[in-house]
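Quick one:
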Amino acid sequence: MKKRRQDDLVSLIHNEKIRTQEELTERLSQLGYPVTQATVSRDIKELKIIKTTDENGDMCYCMPKSDFSAGQGGTHFGFFKSLVHSVAVSLNMIVIHTAAGMAQGIAASIDRLGRADILGTIAGDDTIMVVCRSAEESKSVADYLKTHL
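Output:
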């Protein structure tokens, strides 16, 4: 039942403009899934669904489009290009400026890369700080990220 519900949830995201969890909960209920918003929230997290702006500037849910890096455990960064405004290096840190509200999702994706040269990330609303082991490694990581912009 969960797999089928999640498949239908992905189909809804692909085929309709879904702006809120409430809309998604209502649409799933219409399809015969008696779900709560908490269930939908868990499904969104498990499926790594993101919320981004569409061509009209409206926020809506979407699936990440492509892999950021082949062989990195399926980490999705297809959305990275449209959401990141700048990447700058300072010593062993990288500062990334993003679209409003997108920093935490992108930081989580960077964390999931599992790179040994990245100690961790800190994200606000539209800014991410990536801490690397050394200045040399931060340049390497920044170059890696920039190639995907």
